[in-house]
UniProtKB/TrEMBL annotation:
EC number from the UniProt entry: 3.4.14.-
Role according to the record: Catalyzes the removal of dipeptides from the N-terminus of oligopeptides.
InterPro entries, alphabetized: Pep_S46, Peptidase_S1_PA, Peptidase_S1_PA_chymotrypsin
Enzyme type, top EC level: hydrolase
Species of the source: Bacteroides gallinaceum
Name of the protein in its database record: Dipeptidyl-peptidase
Length: 725
């Protein structure tokens, strides 16, 4: 009875009126329930909250979607034109680039629909509908169709989503899928109906010297001068329906909502609002869990990525071919390498551990006052979980960074499945099954030796990471191939790796073809790459199993703790942690003072680009055409009143990864910029929000349009937008 009663409680986080609500990645469907409109209007919002989101009409929500696998994009014309960040479009730009057509270096500008480039695998997703399914989940728990612990699981949530989709009027409509997710650590559940468009074409991208200006050095830093944007377009069939892939007969999508663009400018204190898909925050962690993040995730990630990035930097600098092949991989890896460094530093500098400890003391006092035994015990139980999981989490991070995202050759998932299928087919000796399995092995070989893989670069990465992994983890975390190195190669890592990369079935086309001409189980069993993949896969399963066993009921403990915190902080509402679902954050344009004697104003200009220019440093090269435009002050209508060209600006909006590309809007819901980064001093913000230091860095829409029109020569794109001056 006790559990059911707890599950039936209204979530206090979601229903009380706000006292202060600057922090928060707010759920659109709860804005009115949480009375956020009054606070937003007090800070400068001029529109009605129902024009931001309403279940009954077209709103701003319908102009924002998921771009690709992990970013946000917004629609900026009636013809499906998407604005997102350059770093969000980087995969696509790299995919289309070659030494002969180096769009990474030179940029890409489509002057007509015919010049826009199909990009296989790239999608854009709109949220069609949001439904509260908390009561359905609680009813299933009550009727014992699922346990409370199982209600968090992917299997149950998929079954729930599929069941609701079948009952919906959206069933069977092109591109529609359903996704059910827990919020507030499982105290609430929502179902999202998603519409996916799979024909998305590249339209415009500035040279990386503009779109990625500052590179690693400026990443997560202010002041910034990066024009971090790219443009794409959604295509659909003649009726506006999604198709599963590119079709020549598809046409630009006539959207139901797009954003108007404002050139009116911005001043310190102006209202700023961001809508997007923040990936992940962990605001409800205990002190011990923050330490686990620092030591069990961030430090191993920093260690392994630093080693790998060192190899890639050297190889990319020596070859244009390799630079293009590894551009996207390098950018993705370095981004969260630096983020992990900054997060650990900010946790210490901003005294996050002290804040968490203080919160736990207050929570214990609250629990004792309430005489709630679950609340009294929950932090202690979470601490016990951390003690069990910490060494395993450290091992798993080292493992994943080394064998899942570090070394690419002989990836264990693909190799193991295709080799196992072939071995079974050879044992049964059925021609049809053998031919099918051999086709699968061909796919695995092609997957390894894809256009963005260089065998010699990866060999050099392996020679750094394989010894590093051994030095970083206990002996029982080592895959069995380390025994092969010790016994058969006398501990010589380089000799083993050379044999792996030179002599195995998957090493090169000659070896692979020789095996395919005479495939045998014996050859598979003796092959070093097959042994390597098998032992790596086995060790992953072993570590993951130990983590699962040690985790216990951690999801239920978090559910209890979050519910208790919401009660403790009432009547102030709390937002749920980010989980890559659509959110709204509001704030203001604002400068900040990171340290004594240092003041950062809220905007930068093109002048700063010229001041940072360093022709000897590829991160700070300035294109000649941009220098010409600067010299002649040929800014057109995009200049500031004093004649300067705005570049980037700061707001107090609460964002994180996944918000990249999100629209920054003024009080009228007009687009004024695109969010692309956070500031170094507040990289602990995913764990603990700091009102004084937290800043969102955005590229000014005027800088974007200036580059599109004056440098890219794409007046055609400007003409299809609705611009307010």
């Amino acid at each position: 009875m006790k559990k059911i009663k707890v599950l039936a409680m209204a979530l206090i986080c979601a229903v009380f009126s706000p006292v202060k609500a600057d922090e928060g990645m707010w759920l659109l469907q709860l804005m009115q329930e949480q009375n956020l409109a009054d606070r937003m209007k007090a800070q400068g919002m001029k529109m009605d909250v129902t024009d931001i989101y309403s279940a009954d009409k077209v709103t701003l929500k319908d102009a924002v979607g998921i771009f690709g696998r992990g970013c946000t994009g917004e629609i900026i014309s009636p013809n499906g034109l998407i604005l997102t960040n350059h770093h969000c479009g980087y995969d696509a730009i790299q995919q289309h680039s070659s030494v002969d057509h180096d769009y990474l270096t030179n940029g890409f500008w489509a002057k007509s629909y015919q010049e826009e480039l199909p990009t296989p695998g790239l999608t854009f997703k709109f949220v069609e509908r949001i439904v509260d399914v908390t009561d359905l989940v609680n009813e299933d728990i009550k009727k014992k169709k699922v346990t409370e612990a199982e209600s968090f699981g992917a299997k149950y949530l998929k079954e729930l989503a599929d069941k609701q989709l079948k009952k919906s009027d959206l069933k069977g409509k092109p591109g529609i899928s359903a996704l059910a997710l827990p919020f507030y650590a499982g105290n609430k559940y929502y179902l999202f109906f998603i519409k996916t468009y799979s024909d998305v074409r590249m339209v415009a991208a500035p040279p990386s010297s503009i779109g990625k200006f500052g590179g690693e050095t400026d990443n997560w830093m202010w002041p910034r001068h990066t024009c971090d944007f790219s443009m794409f377009r959604i295509y659909a069939d003649k009726d506006g329906n999604p198709t599963e892939e590119y079709k020549e007969t598809n046409v630009p999508l006539k959207v139901k909502k797009y954003l108007t663009i404002s050139l009116k400018g911005l001043q310190e204190g102006d209202y700023a609002m961001i809508m997007g898909f923040p990936g992940s925050t962990s605001r409800y962690l205990t002190e011990s869990e923050v330490r686990l993040r620092m030591d069990g995730t961030n430090i191993p990630r920093i260690t392994v990525r630093e080693a790998r990035l060192g190899v890639l930097r050297k190889e990319m600098a020596a070859s244009d071919k390799i630079r293009i092949q590894y551009a996207s991989k390098f950018a993705s890896s370095s981004n969260y390498w630096k983020n992990s460094i900054g997060m650990n530093k900010a946790i210490v500098d901003n005294k996050v551990l002290d804040a968490k400890a203080e919160q736990e003391m207050k929570f214990l006092e609250f629990a004792e006052k309430k005489q709630n035994e679950d609340y009294k015990a929950v932090v202690s139980k979470i601490n016990d979980y951390v003690a069990r999981i910490a060494p395993l989490q450290t091992q798993m991070t080292y493992f994943s960074e080394t064998f899942r995202s570090g070394i690419e050759f002989a990836g264990y998932t693909a190799v193991n499945s295709s080799v196992e299928a072939l071995a079974k087919a050879l044992d049964k000796n059925k021609k049809k099954d053998i031919e099918k399995a051999l086709d699968g092995l061909k796919e695995t070989y092609a997957e390894i030796h894809n256009k963005d893989y260089d065998h010699e670069v990866d060999r050099k990465v392996a020679k750094i990471l394989i010894p590093l992994y051994m030095a970083s983890v206990p002996a029982d975390a080592l895959p069995a191939f380390y025994g092969t190195i010790k016994d058969e190669f006398k501990g010589d890592f380089n000799a083993y790796i050379d044999a792996l990369y030179n002599n195995t079935i998957f090493a090169n086309e000659k070896n692979f073809n020789a095996f395919m001409a005479n495939p045998t189980v014996e050859a598979l069993e003796k092959d070093l790459a097959v042994q390597y993949a098998e032992t790596v896969g086995n060790k992953y399963g072993e570590i993951a199993g130990r983590i699962g066993k040690a985790s216990g009921d951690i999801d239920l403990l978090h559910k209890t703790y979050v519910r208790g915190l919401c009660e403790m902080y009432a009547p102030t509402p709390k937002a749920p942690d980010a989980n890559f679902t659509i959110r709204l954050t509001y704030g203001n344009v604002k400068s900040y003072d990171p340290k004594d004697g240092i003041h950062y104003k809220y905007y930068t200009t093109l002048k700063g680009v010229m001041e940072k220019e360093d022709p000897k440093n590829p991160e700070f090269v300035v294109p000649e055409k941009l220098k010409e435009l600067y010299a002649t002050k040929n800014y057109g209508r995009y200049a500031l009143p004093n004649g300067e060209m705005p570049a980037c600006f700061l707001t107090t909006n609460d964002i994180t990864g996944g918000n990249s590309g999100s629209p920054v809007m003024n009080g009228n819901g007009e687009l004024i910029g695109a969010a692309f980064d956070g500031n170094w001093e507040s990289l602990s913000g995913d764990i603990n929000f700091d009102n004084n230091l937290q800043r969102c860095i955005a590229v000014d829409i005027r800088y974007v349009l200036f580059i599109v029109e004056k440098l890219g020569g794409c007046k055609n794109l400007i003409d299809e937008m609705t611009i307010v001056e």
